[in-house]
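Attaching the record inline, Q. Sequence:
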Amino acid sequence: MAIFVDETTLVVVQGLTGSQGRFHGVRNRDYGTKVVGGVTPGKGGEDVEGIPVFDSVKEAVAETGATASFV
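Structure, as predicted:
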């Protein structure tokens, strides 16, 4: 199965506040991917370099309309 991300895909990064999540999330955003939020339980309300963080994927999708996620 292949998953394609294009210019219309809105992405949430699970684990955005961790070192690897931050590294890949910010670089994907800088590359042009529409990273609209991150998820780390207990850290909702924070942000990582302007990317809002939510406590759950459900909350992130409801707030941002995200259509894809990566871990």
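The helical segments are 19-31, 57-64. Strands lie at 10-14, 34-39, 47-48, 51-54, 68-70.

More tomorrow.
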